[in-house]
Amino acid sequence: MVKFCAGLDLDCGPFLAIHTESAIQAGKLSEADVNGALAHTLSVQMRLGMFDGEPSRQPFGNLGPNDVCTPAHQQLALEAARQGAVLLQNRARSLPLSTTRHRTIAVIGPNSDVTITMIGNYAGVACGYTSPLQGIARYAKTVHQSGCNGVACPDNQLFGRAETAARNADATVLVMGLDQSIEAEFKDRVGLLLPGHQQELVSRVAMASRGPVVLVLMSGGPLDVSFAKNDPRVSAILWVGYPGQAGGTAIADVLFGRTNPGGKLPMTWYPQDYLAKAPMTDMALRANPSRGYPGRTYRFYKGTVVFPFGLGLSYTNFAHEIAHAPTAVSVPLATLDGLKNSTTFSNGVRVKHTNCDALSLGVDVDVKNTGDMDGTHSLLVFSTPPLGKGDLEKQLIGFEKVHVVAGGRQRVRVHIDVCKHLSVVDKFGIRRIQMGEHSLHFGDIKHSISLQATLGDIKT
């Protein structure tokens, strides 16, 4: 009953209904745990009004499409899709496309004219859809070829038509990737490459195209598209996840520069050979070079990546400058016993032995837009422990989103909790703060903060 032990006492499937009684009989689970889980579930149901009588007589009992599909709600869906788009590559500033120079667009790929695919799973009924093909058609004349029969792309029989379309267009947009037939709950992917013959389609179309080639990827997880990243004929790569009902409009708005992309990649994109090195039977996070295990997540993985966690390009350029930040912080220990029982300089100070109340730091960072286009920037703040202390590569400790006009600057205040953000859980599950010089990463700049354990008041 791992779900209970991990603090989650709700299961959305039949597992608990089938196995709970036997777990109690075997002594693996107590009735008190079950009663507690039931109380939590019932209390939420009460808050939702599920025991208040006939639903249609309740305040929200008659909500329908007219309430959900308001202009404001549909605009919100569009804005979410725009903000979620992540520009991964943009060779020679090939994006945004121009409505005057790129009058005819070849729109190609198994996801180029999809609708339901864009909402992924766990979604309600959409108010309406705008496919990528429809979105692009609002900006330019389009020539459409699917190239594949679905994302499985079992053969290359339609590739010739796609190549012809690309050869006769001013620019080509390939909308590739996955859908729920490839990745879904209870349907694990067996590889990181594009399915079937998709890679061949991208390469052949890129070879035939007379104009810039943009690869748009729909997926919920990472993809190894190293072939496209390294192909000089693929001008740009845009990842949009599953962008929702307005996904086609959002994609087109980004491609033609109405929206300046500002999304950041929420996961590491590993190469295909990572799967052989990190079997699903080994969930350890830390790398183990002695047995060839590379580690998991950007925090511990030490190998090469296709695209790193947190990557996201813009049509403008941003620079960072630290306006104010402490350089030294005293970490007060709560008791003398804390100093005696902590191997302070080798393993770090246990957080529970530390007086964390006043260990909150403020760092002011100026974000400057040095380009010629207004843009929204997500400032990601990472920390790295002292050199040689622990296995951690870096960890995200905060982020702030700020809109900066071309040529302007905005000051961002970043709050850092030393006990939370500059500590690491060791191999034994103990959270410790390493003493020494920690590095803070703000975009393209670094700042060092030295931590020292004391029994006195905090000094910065």
Automatic annotation (TrEMBL):
Organism per entry: Rhododendron griersonianum
Alphabetical keyword list: Glycosidase, Hydrolase
Residue ranges occupied by any Fibronectin type III-like domain in the UniProt entry: 377-446
Record has Hydrolase as a keyword: yes
Cellular component aspect of the GO annotation: apoplast
One Pfam family recorded for the sequence: Fn3-like
GO molecular function: alpha-L-arabinofuranosidase activity; xylan 1,4-beta-xylosidase activity
Gene Ontology biological-process entries: arabinan catabolic process; xylan catabolic process
Identification of the protein by name: Fibronectin type III-like domain-containing protein
InterPro entries: BXL (IPR044993), Fn3-like (IPR026891), GH (IPR017853), Glyco_hydro_3_C (IPR002772), Glyco_hydro_3_C_sf (IPR036881), Ig-like_fold (IPR013783)
